[in-house]
Amino acid sequence: MIEATLEEEVYACDQDFQSCYRAVLSSLREDRPADSTCADKSTLQSLEAQEQQIAAMVDAVGGAECPDEMLRLEVAASFRDLYTELRADLAQYEREFVSAASAGDAAGSREAATSKGGGWNEADEERFVKVLRGFERKQGAGRNPQLLYDQLMAVLPAISLKEIMKHVKFHQHLRFHKQKSKDRQREFQRRMQELQTEVREQIRVAVEQEQEKEQKLQQWQTQQQQCQQLQGQVAQWRVTKEAKERIEQQQREIERVMEEQAKQEEELHWKRKLAQQRLVVEDYKSVRLGLQYILELLFGGYCFILTSCFAAVCCRKEKVLGRMAGEKVLVEEEQKREAERAVQSVVNAERVEYRHNELQVGGHSLSCASNPSADSVSHLVAC
Prior knowledge:
By secondary structure, the chain is an all-alpha fold. The chain has 2 domains: about 40-220, no CATH class; about 225-380. It has helices at about 1-25, 40-60, 70-100, 110-115, 120-140, 145-155, 160-300, 305-370, 375-380. Helix 2 (about 40-60) crosses helix 3 (about 70-100) and helix 7 packs antiparallel against helix 8. It is rod-shaped.
C-alpha cells in the first residue's frame, strides 16, 4: 500500500515537472506577438536576425559543449533580455525624439519629425547640413548661433529666419537622439561582453562538473566490478572450504566406523578365544576324569570297561579336536576377512587423502591467482 502511494506521488511529481518544464520553454521562446498579422515584416525579420545572433553567441561562448540544457536556455534568455531592453530603450528614445521634434519650435509636426530631412526637401537639407557641420567644426556646437543663422540665410535665401531657427532646433534634437542611442549601444556592448564572460565561466564550470560526474561514475563502475570479482573469489573460496570440510568430515566418519569395527572384531576375537579356552578346560577335565576312571578300572581289573572307556575318551577327544579344527578354520577365515577389510580401508584412506590433496592444490592455486589484499577485502566488506 505504501509503495503504491509512493509510486503515485512520484508519477504526479514527474507530471508537474514536465508541465513546468514546458511552461519554462514556452516562456523562453522568442518574444513575438500572438497574432502574426499584427507585426510588420521588418519586425519579424529583425526578430529572426536577433534569434540567429543569439544562437551564434550561445555557440561562441561554448553552448554547444554545455551538457546542461537548462543552462543553455538560461543563457539564450539572458541574451534575449539584453536585446529586449535595448529595443525598448531605443523605442523610448525614438518616441521622446519624435515628441520633442514635433513641437512648434522644431519640425512642427509628427510627419516632419519622422521624415528624413525634417520636412525640408533634399537639396535644402543637404546645403543646411553642409553649412551646419562646417560651422560646428570651426566654432563648436551651440556657440554663436547668430553667426550660424547668418551663414544659413546666405546659403538658403528663400527660407525665412524662423524656419531656419526651427530646423536648427530639429537638428539639435536629432543630434541628441543619435548621441543617446550611441551611448545606449555602447552600454549594450559592454553589458553583452560582461554577460558573455560570465556565461563562459558558468558553462566551463558546468562542463567540469559533468566531467567530474562521469569520472565518479566510471570509478563507481570500476569499484562495482572489483567488488563483484572479489565476491566471486570469496564464493569460490567458500565452496572450496565447504568441500574441504565435507571431505574431512567423511574422513572422520570413516575413521570412526573403522574404529567401531575394530572394537567389534576385537570383542568377537576375545569371545571366541574365551570359548576355545573353555572348551580346552572342559576337554582337560573330561580327559582327567577318564584317566582317573581308567586307573580305577586298571586297579579293579575290568578290562572291558577300560576298553570301552578308552574308546569313549578317544571319541570324545576326536570330537574336541574336530571342533578345535573347525574353530581354527573359522579364525583363519575371519583373519582373512580382516586383512581384506584392512586393505580396503587403506585404499579408502588413500582415496580420501588424494581428493583432499587435490582440493588443497586447487584452493592454493586459486588463492595465489587472486591473492586479494587487505585493502580489497576491507573494500569488499565496505561494499
